[in-house]
Design brief:
By secondary structure, the protein is an alpha/beta fold. Helices cover 39% and strands 7% of the residues. It has helices spanning 15-24, 46-62, 81-86, 112-128, 143-159, 185-197, 218-221, 248-272, and strands at 27-32, 66-67, 133-138, 163-168. It has a four-stranded parallel beta sheet with strand order 2-1-3-4. Helix 2 packs across helix 6, helix 2 packs across helix 8 (248-272) and helix 4 (112-128) packs parallel to helix 5. Its cofactor is Zn(2+). InterPro entries: Creatininase-like_sf, Creatininase/forma_Hydrolase.
Length: 276
Amino acid sequence: MNKNDREIRFELLRPGQLIQERERCPLIFVPIAPLEYHGPHLPVGMDPINATFSALETCRRLGKGVVYPTIHCGTERERPAWMLESLGFKATDWVVGMDFPTALWKSHYSKEHIFGLILANEIQFLVDHDYKVIVIVNGHGAVNHQETIDRIAKDFSHTTDTLVVWNLTIPDEVLKDGLAGHADIYETSMMLYYQKLFGSDSIVDFSAIPDKSVPIHYPDFSIVDGAGFSKEPDPEKIVRTDPRNANEALGKELHEKIVGDFLNLTKDALKNKGLL
């Protein structure tokens, strides 16, 4: 069997197959992100879908390791006063994550400490099953979410014989001051690409947002560019990385860059453990 034809999805492998793959290379990828409101035009699974496809493709190209079932969990915090003003709200408003007052669906955020317990519990399972390199493929960009992952990864890496590494499924050039946009041209383009992998052309629905003649302001649909999360937002609070300019080709390009970044991260981790 060609290494690229092997089954790599953890949940579809029998115990003997899992043992065989672990003996070949004790590497496992863990995609993780919450179900989150991504405007009216994108599915709530945008972040975990991105994490899942990124993990699967990285594993396939590497030709070793397996991919753990996607953990649909993540955390967010209330927006600080300065960011509320950047987003076009009052400094005294209460907004958690992307659950703006106009949101049609409440995001499935866990409390920070609960998210930490869930992730640590899953990682402990994998440490107990003798995986020596765990790559967390994180699809969610919230600062406190990433800090929780980083803390847990460092703790396991320093207290066990397993190296836990992680990265965000957004290319560096897309980030503004370290902050990615939300449901903008970049995420919408990736979803246009991913929907083809589902055999669909209707997961993204542009009819759910106004046509291009109408500017999209940050509070309108929970659609925000990276600048909106910074202290230097667009003066008019208008999304400049407009999701209506999204296209499948850009989505594929972004996906390729994400996979390239994770290949490099994983190879470095394997070398660190003497497995490559």
